Amino acid sequence: MFSGVVPKLPIIYQDEFLVAINKPHGLLVHRSPIAADADLFAVQLLRDQLGQKVYPVHRLDRKTGGVLLFALNEEMNSFMQQQFQEGKVEKVYHAIVRGYTDDSGIIDYPLKKDDGTIQDAVTDYKTLQRSEMPFAIGKHATSRYSLVELRPKTGRMHQLRKHMAHIFHPIIGDRPHGCNKQNRYFKDMLGMDTMLLHAASITFTHPKFQKGTQVHAPFNPQFSRMINELDFNWIGQPDKA
């Protein structure tokens, strides 16, 4: 997806200490042994684009788009890492999921790490809009979808993906936690081959200026197209923290 022409990353916030991009779906944050097919990475692309070293202060899955924040020096990176570790950074995501979700809810469901360790994991969610489409998938003549706002209260690997699957509303395009029938339909019939999870905003205290800072990322093209395909008309921003 990102081989060949080197893309210019969209910068949505920048000062002399921090920079944030709107990460495209499908772009890895950094090199990973489990993604040997990739040859472009956000860290290297942004470094070359700015002409200086950058430090990712958090991570996004390869197929997740949206706000990705970097520090521009080691001291700032340490300050931001500390805020994340202390739970002082608020992240808001948007997702399109299968079925009609409740108006709001709290998912309190511990998750297991690869080494077997059990970790507490909590996610708040709110339904922004619902849609029913004439997609005959499986035994049903129509398919229902929800556009949801997700606020993770903990930062576990694949937390949002696993939590939405746990309440039987998997994120469209999620593999392996999602619905294979839905994913196949979206790929074959709608030409959509990503995961519909978007990091919409991040809120933190700027370590240098000591003031609340919030960075928003607009939907990437694939997400915007699916918003239209599914007749969602919601174009707002997440609530202010």
Automatic annotation (TrEMBL):
Signal peptide: none annotated. SUPFAM superfamilies: Pseudouridine synthase. Residues 18-166 form the Pseudouridine synthase RsuA/RluA-like domain. Keywords: Isomerase. It comes from the Bacteria. Its EC number is 5.4.99.26. GO terms for molecular function: tRNA pseudouridine(65) synthase activity. PANTHER family: MITOCHONDRIAL RNA PSEUDOURIDINE SYNTHASE, TRNA PSEUDOURIDINE SYNTHASE C. This is tRNA pseudouridine65 synthase.
